[in-house]
Amino acid sequence: MKKISVIIVVFLLIYNSNDFIKAQSIDKKYYEFLHKAKTSDLLYINGSVAFLINKSPLEIFSEYKNLYDSYKEVVPVELKIEFGTEIMPLNNTTYQVIWYLKDSILYLTDIKFYSISICDYKSVFSNNEQYKLMEKLTKVNIDKSMRPLSNDPYRHVNTIGMMPTNWLNDTLLIKRARESFEDIEKWLLSTPCDKLIFRNGKLVSMTTTDIY
Amino acid sequence: MYFDYSGNFIGSYGDGNDIIIAPPEIVGKVITTMARAVGISGNVNVVYEGGNICAGASSSGDIYFNYNANIMAYNNYFDFLSVLHHENHHLMSMEDFGTSRSEFQALIYEMNQPSFQYTSDFYRNITLNEYNSYNPSGYNNPSGYNNPSGYN
């Protein structure tokens, strides 16, 4: 009886520490992108697949982080996010930009504020001032003929149009975001980053890298 | 774990981890009761976000708990408790608010709580991997902080 108890205790100890051992055994190179990414923005490519981005396409505009500081409702929020599904909004980030790569053109499709419930957007921005301020910052108008993304009610609220990123001449690293409940280890080990090169907002090159 | 309709803790029965709660208003009251027990004195608000968001703490000291969070599917009392420990650490270290150091320390704090071992496999896994994405340097986005890891 005593032996059985010992075996059960050992089994339980091993079972309970399984996740910990598994998590600790993954090489740190597979966390490199997550470690280095500097923006919580998300990119969608041709519809519903979300990607994490290493830096914001708005970085060229020095005041982009403070764009909505005059709104008292817009404040930083520390979030507990399910691993790999989004990048944590750090360094006083108050909003998340949703980008959409459609027909090789990168568009700004939505702006999500962490401290405001989606159903309260209209009371804070009664005349869609969030997009007007963004137009003022980038000096690019929203193209009302371009239909914004609408498949995720928690991320897609814009119904006006999309803003082409004419200013963008840069290289972005992206990594497919982990879907909720997707196996973490499998996602980490099998999702390398892609390198996207843009000229005037148009994608000119997309290659898979050995960066994870 | 049992709570009444006002969110007051009534008691526990057996040795399981299950917590059964349903409508948002009850969730709000229960989470508020749990939050007070871990030392959170600010407002606790129930919000409706995508399932990948568990909870949040604002710089004004409020706590947000996502009614749609995927962790709700596991009905594990200790998952909720661990989230509250995490958010409480943010509130206790407002001088670091919004930095990667704050997030890393909050993860260590919640993982060091005795209750963490009783969280669901799902919750433990996402938290350990989140911690791993900071470890060994401790801090992401090293703006203004030392980054002694191999990452540059």
Notes on the protein architecture:
- The complex is a heterodimer of chains A (212) and B (152).
- Chain A has 212 residues and is of the alpha+beta class.
- Chain A has helices at 2-25, 32-36, 121-124, 129-138, 184-190; strands at 42-45, 49-53, 77-81, 95-102, 105-113, 163-164, 171-176, 194-199, 202-208.
- Chain A has one domain.
- Helix content of chain A is 24%, strand content 25%.
- Chain B has 152 residues and is of the alpha+beta class.
- Chain B has one domain (2-134): Zincin-like.
- Chain B is 38% helix and 12% strand.
- Chain B contains four helices and five strands.
- Chain B has helices spanning 24-38, 77-92, 100-111, 121-134; strands spanning 2-3, 9-11, 44-47, 53-58, 63-66.
- In chain B, the strands form two sheets. A three-stranded mixed sheet of chain B has the order 3-5-4. In chain B, strands 1-2 form a two-stranded antiparallel sheet.
- In chain B, helix 1 packs across helix 2 (77-92), helix 2 (77-92) crosses helix 3 (100-111) and helix 3 packs across helix 4 (121-134).
- The relative contact order of chain B is 0.12.
- The model of chain B is unreliable at 141-152 (pLDDT under 50).
- At the A-B interface, helix 1, helix 2 and strand 3 of A face strand 4, helix 2, helix 3 and helix 4 of B.
- Strand 3 (77-81) of chain A pairs antiparallel with strand 4 of chain B.
